[in-house]
Write a structure and sequence with these properties.
The complex is a heterodimer of chains A (about 150) and B (about 300).
Chain A: E1 14-21, H1 25-31, E2 41-49, E3 53-61, H2 67-76, E4 81-86, E5 89-95, E6 101-103, E7 123-129, E8 132-137, E9 143-145
Antiparallel strand pairs in A: 1-3, 1-4, 2-3, 4-5, 6-7, 7-8, 8-9
Chain B: H1 18-32, E1 45-50, H2 55-67, E2 71-75, H3 89-99, E3 102-107, H4 112-119, E4 124-129, H5 135-149, E5 155-160, H6 167-176, E6 181-186, H7 195-203, E7 207-211, E8 223-226, H8 237-246, E9 262-264, H9 285-303
Parallel strand pairs in B: 1-2, 1-3, 3-4, 5-6, 5-8, 6-7, 8-9
The chains are: A mainly beta (about 150), B alpha/beta (about 300).
Bound molecules: zinc ion.
């Protein structure tokens, strides 16, 4: 297998999330609750990138990000590359796909939305407008940009 | 042969196809003309669950059910239910759904009707969820437009008043995007149409424009949809008084308007439509309120698959 040229040191087992828009890595950490599982997480902020000028990068030691989790990432980082590593070699590499609907990932920003008052799975319909995503709450029907989302379930 | 009506729950006007809308309007017309048997809901028991009081909407639904031979139980305000004891909406609806054949819900929170429809397998009809949707109001607005103009296409429709918080305006504007219409939105800048609704309208290739006065717009209109301007939306009382007077429609303002102009208002009105308009042929708002019953009858008949 070819060696990857990541500017943070290689990991033995786990996941590398590459091509995250600069500044978005910390939001992905909250989204996937990466710090709550006592796994080693390495973050690279504002790394140089050919395709994006500046990017963020995340390495999670000892945890394989599932495809479903990968697709959630796509809402914040539409071009993120997810690389699964076992024994220092890449076993799987894919670009996150934006799902049509995203369930129980974000808290609806509308305070009067029923999902903020009852225990209910949040559901957002996702649509893409160029590089921007819009998220429409299935319940209160308000539409948000990905940047409006501040809290994760 | 009309296409079958497929919606089981009536939660949002956004769920309706153009055909669904036309089917309901056609049936409502036939009910009004006495062409359809009225006993279609015989043996059907409905619950009106009003977690927020709205006497007019509740009575309109109850009249629709009883006029079709159905029966209805329910409550008029959340103070009498176990929600006050902390029961969740989902639990309340799940249990009530076991007693009845369908639920009509009004609730102060946005999205509550959608949540309710997920908690039961019985049909759920939204009678207003917070500031979000009130689909039967939208259907009766469309019905009244069609009744007054004999068509829904090639119309110039003016919305005036509080377009920011006016839920009926948002849903009606969304529904009208199914038709070939020209829309004018007339409001003080602080109460103009929210961008997400404007985006919906824009996305459907509908021609529209924003204005801060009815001057010059009124004469173009086939329909003017007036809404209530609420004092609590303004931080400054002087500003409220100024705006309120600017948007008050009097009989004398109607010189030079089109002969077919219909003025609609979801009622109750405060000062937006002066009583001097009531006796002009342009006053359609009482007729509009009256149409609520036949439109709800038509909707119930289709939801229960009786047509
Ligand atoms: Zn919401």
């Amino acid at each position: 297998m070819p060696k990857t040229t990541l500017s943070v040191s290689a990991i033995k087992e786990g996941t590398v999330i590459d091509h995250i828009p600069a500044g978005c890595a910390s939001r992905i950490i909250s989204l996937l609750h990466l710090t709550s599982q006592q796994k080693q997480v390495t973050v690279g902020f504002n790394l140089p990138s050919k395709s994006m000028k500046r990017k963020d990068l995340l390495k999670v030691e000892g945890r394989e990000i599932t495809e479903q989790e990968g697709n959630r990432i796509a809402v914040l980082a539409p071009k993120a590359t997810i690389v699964i590593i076992k024994n220092y070699t890449i076993v799987k590499k894919y670009i996150a796909k934006t799902p049509k609907e995203i369930q129980n990932v974000f808290v609806c920003p509308h305070p009067q939305c029923i999902t903020n008052h009852e225990q209910a799975e949040t559901r957002f319909a996702v649509s893409t407008h160029g590089i921007h995503l819009s998220l429409r709450c299935v319940y209160c029907e308000r539409t948000y940009q990905d940047s409006d989302i501040r809290e994760y379930c | 042969m009309a296409q079958p009506f497929t919606l089981k729950n009536i939660i949002s006007i956004a769920d309706f196809s153009k055909q669904d809308i036309l089917t309901i309007l056609k049936t409502a017309r036939e009910i009004q003309q006495g062409k359809i048997s009225l006993r279609l809901l015989e043996g059907v028991l409905m619950a009106t669950c009003f977690f927020e009081a709205s006497t007019r909407t509740r009575l309109s639904f109850e009249a629709a059910i009883k006029r079709m031979g159905g029966d209805v139980i329910g409550f008029a305000d959340a103070a009498v239910t176990s929600t006050k004891k902390g029961e969740t909406l989902a639990d309340s609806i799940k249990i009530i759904g076991q007693y009845v054949d369908g639920i009509i819900i009004r609730h102060p929170l946005d999205g509550s009707a959608r949540l309710a429809s997920c908690a039961t397998d019985k049909p759920v009809i939204n009678a207003g969820d917070g500031s979000n949707q009130h689909p039967t109001q939208t259907l009766l607005d469309l019905y009244t437009i069609k009744e007054s103009q004999k068509k829904l296409d090639e119309l110039t429709i003016v919305f005036a008043g509080d377009l920011k918080y006016g839920r009926t305006v948002h849903s009606l504007a969304q529904a009208l995007t199914h038709f070939n219409v020209r829309l004018y939105f007339v409001a003080p800048p602080s109460l103009q149409l929210p961008p997400h609704i404007a985006d919906d309208v824009k996305g459907r290739q509908i021609k529209f424009s924003f204005h801060d006065s009815l001057d010059g717009v009124l004469q173009k209109a086939d329909v003017v949809y007036m809404t209530r301007m609420q004092a609590e939306r303004f931080s400054d009382t002087n500003e409220y008084m100024r705006v309120k007077n600017m948007y008050e429609l009097k009989a004398e303002d109607l010189k030079g308007v089109k002969k077919n102009l219909a003025i609609l208002h979801p009622l109750p009105r405060v000062a937006e439509v002066h009583t001097s308009v009531d006796t002009t042929p342009h006053a359609w708002y009482f007729r509009q309120a009256n149409n609520g019953v036949v439109v709800r009858q038509a909707l119930l008949a289709h939801v229960f698959g009786k047509l």
